[in-house]
Design goal:
Catalytic activity: ATP + protein L-histidine = ADP + protein N-phospho-L-histidine
Distance between the termini: 53 Å
Protein name: Chemotaxis protein CheA
Strand content: 15-25%
EC number: 2.7.13.3
Number of strands: 22
Pfam family, one: H-kinase_dim
Function: Involved in the transmission of sensory signals from the chemoreceptors to the flagellar motors. CheA is autophosphorylated; it can transfer its phosphate group to either CheB or CheY.
Length: about 725
């Protein structure tokens, strides 16, 4: 196997593309099951498996390639023969098992492990199913035009080295020249060219390709430069028609444009002249003039060749107007993939710029000076800094669609195992949040969906008895609200059992005030306590009392809060409030003695001065404050963190009311310093976890302010 260091960029590209394609494939399969057939998605499924097969073979991952090949054979038969009496659910179950295998192997690669899984059983299952399907539909497996029968034979002793010599095999009926151009800056053009040759070997005799040493000298950078400039050119013979050839080649990964020409046999042999671009172009123009060549373009490049026969123009040629090629190129390059580490670094630099700007504009040396021009320039700097910050944050924003669509598979699999018919409705999947937040909320959402299916939705018979439709419904919704993102997980099931939760909470000693004073939300919030479960029997999905506390912790880690609301027999709604980003937040600065703290504004309900009569003490000596008839605990930061301060009388300080998970406390501080954007910095590793502190930030005067973790203080 190739040295890991030299193939690391290729491996990253393979992992990224494969996982992306597998997510698309899962969604296509689930949509097909809902439609009870593959009519609308079979081409996409075939294309995805064809692409994964080719890229896995290119990377020498035999088990992944062979499994993808067998699935491709199955869908090739379904597409070409259109057999009757096909059970789409059975096929989807088989293919999803294959998807899981490929995904697991790809994750191993992502984690630096070897893809050592054995796909032989899955391949045998797919082949057996295909054989049965053929026998049932009297299609037979020995049709001379059946690609699947041919490819299965080839696969047994499949090798992934292609000789650069001309193929010496039975003459084929058609001869073609193909010119493939890849996306600009896609990288590894020589390896992608090798993949094209490997793929063509299954259907054709490859006579010639240029550059000639993409295999033996595949690592040469000059080959990639040639392919970037002029494209990869290959001449081959095959029995397939023009449309089939174009269809096959169009599946190449990151293909920008594709031209396929029929080579007229009465022309002289072009092999010796192939590197001469000008002569080849003259021959191609002659083919067009004689009507003996057909040009096929990729769908996104349909008009690219209206002016030029091959699109291979010299770089110094002047064009009289904006060509379709330029238009297509610009539209294709409107989106690029960037390593998230680079975005993290960029965000860090923007954070430092925000801090530096504050240090300049709020410099104590400027106090009392009349500096009109300076303040004018400072306002302009602040405007540009804010715009830069907004742009960088928008670059990091990704839609929730991929995270939401993954839930379709979970709902489908659990519904089958629990014999429940479930409809999943997704709303607002285009809502965007920070990349880091998406990575951390995926697992909590999965657990909430599993809980809704297992706990929330009743069995079909029970639903019918209650006058409900037999199929349960789960709604996954996202929307923006100011500077926050709200995610809702709703079901129309049985709802939470208030009395059962209250009983369990009583047994666990979780109730610390009279039960008649507990609101429904407070009672429902007990489900987020570690070890809490109302499930009598432990199943593979739930009942162990783990999960909901982890959900709450994960949401809190990204600065979010979670709420529960439920109506008996009408369902449960779980609401999650998240910040748009974690790197830069709006915070309220407060002063306690000589120390400064920052409270995220997302957690602040209000701030106010208090009167003596509003302060009370409970039987245990805890200080409480009554606000509009409600009693809340008071947390004096100077006592909590043992800070020396002259402001100890509650009349002289300020109260900041904060909320987390529907629980409210009142923080007592000396004074408010004002609201500002702050850059969140992690605490140094040598400082152990401090209760109530979530990080720190650097203020404009160079001093450090600790950022309060409201969830930690409330708990």
């Amino acid at each position: 196997m190739t040295d890991n260091v030299s193939r690391e960029p290729m491996l990253d590209m393979f992992i990224f593309e494969t996982l992306q394609l597998l997510d698309q494939l899962e969604q296509s399969l689930i949509n097909s099951e809902k439609e009870s057939g593959f009519e609308s998605s079979i081409d996409e499924i075939f294309r995805i498996m064809h692409t994964i097969k080719g890229s896995a073979a290119m990377m020498l991952f035999d088990d992944i390639s062979k499994l993808a090949h067998s699935i491709e054979d199955l869908f090739f038969y379904l597409r070409e023969e259109k057999p009757e009496n096909v059970n789409s659910t059975e096929i989807i179950d088989i293919v999803l098992n294959g998807v899981d295998f490929i995904k697991n192997e790809t994750v191993k690669l992502e984690n630096g492990q070897e893809p050592d899984g054995d796909a032989s059983d899955l391949i045998k299952e797919i082949r057996d199913y295909l054989g049965n399907l053929k026998s049932i539909n009297n299609a037979g497996s020995d049709s001379p035009d059946s690609e699947s029968s041919h490819t299965l034979e080839v696969e047994k002793d499949q090798k992934y080295y292609i000789s650069s010599n001309k193929a010496a095999s039975t003459p084929k009926s058609h001869k073609y020249e193909a010119v493939l151009k890849f996306e600009e800056q896609c990288g590894m053009e020589n390896i992608r060219a090798f993949s094209v040759i490997h793929d063509l070997k299954e259907i054709a005799d490859v006579n010639y390709f240029y550059p000639e040493d993409v295999i033996d000298g595949g690592g040469k950078s000059e080959n990639s430069e040639i392919i970037q400039k002029d494209g990869f050119r290959v001449v081959f013979s095959t029995d397939l028609g023009l449309d089939e050839v174009k269809e096959r080649l169009s599946h190449t990964i990151l293909l920008k444009s594709l031209d396929v020409y029929v080579i007229n046999e009465d022309l002289e042999d072009i092999m010796g002249d192939m590197p001469d671009t000008r002569e080849t172009e003259l021959k191609e123009q002659k083919l067009k003039m004689d009507g003996k060549a057909n040009v096929l373009n990729d769908s996104s490049q349909a008009s690219e060749q209206n002016e030029h026969s091959s699109g291979r123009q010299l770089s110094n040629e002047k064009k009289t107007g904006p060509s379709a090629d330029n238009t297509a190129s610009s539209s294709k390059q409107s989106v690029i993939s960037v390593n998230i580490a680079k975005l993290d670094k960029l965000m860090d630099l923007v954070g430092e710029i925000v801090i530096s700007e504050a240090m300049v504009t709020q410099n104590p040396d400027l106090e009392g000076l009349q500096l009109d021009n300076f303040h004018k320039a400072a306002r302009q700097l602040n405007k540009l800094t804010n715009e830069l910050q907004d742009v960088v944050m928008s670059i990091r924003m990704v839609p929730l669609s991929m995270t939401f669509q993954k839930m379709n598979r979970i709902v489908r699999d659990m519904g089958k195992k629990l014999n429940k018919s479930i409809e999943l409705e997704i709303i607002g999947e285009e809502t965007e949040v920070d990349k880091n937040i998406i990575e951390r909320i995926s697992d909590p959402l999965i657990h909430l969906i599993r809980n809704a299916v297992d706990h929330g939705l009743e069995d079909p018979d029970e639903r019918v008895a209650k006058g409900k439709p037999p199929a349960g419904k789960i709604t996954l919704e996202a929307k923006n609200a100011g500077g926050d993102v709200w995610i809702f997980v709703k079901d129309d099931g049985r709802g939470l059992d208030r009395e059962k939760i209250l009983k369990k909470a009583r047994e666990a000693g979780l109730i610390h005030k009279p039960e008649n004073e507990l609101t429904d939300k407070e009672i429902y919030s007990f489900i987020f306590t570690p070890g809490f479960s109302t499930k009598e029997n432990v199943t593979e999905f739930s009942g162990r009392g783990v999960g909901m506390d982890i959900v709450s912790n994960n949401i809190s880690m990204v600065g979010g809060t979670i709420f529960v609301d439920s109506v008996p027999d009408n369902g449960t709604t779980i609401s999650i409030k998240l910040p748009l980003t974690l790197a830069i937040i709006n915070g309220m600065s407060i002063k306690v003695g000589k120390s400064r703290y920052t409270i995220p504004t997302i957690s602040i309900k209000e701030s106010f001065k208090v009167k003596n009569e509003a302060v009370i003490t409970d039987s245990e000596g805890n200080e409480m404050i009554m606000v509009r008839g409600e009693v809340y605990p008071v947390l004096r930061l100077h006592k909590f963190y043992k800070i020396n301060t002259e402001v100890t009388n509650i009349n002289d300080g300020i109260i900041v009311m904060v909320e987390s998970d529907s629980r409210v406390i009142c923080i007592f501080a000396d004074e408010l310093l004002g609201e500002q954007q702050v850059v969140v910095k992690a605490l140094p590793k040598y400082i152990k976890k401090v209760k109530g502190i979530g990080g720190c930030t650097l203020l404009g005067d160079g001093s450090i302010s600790l950022i309060l973790d409201v969830a930690g203080l409330v708990s």
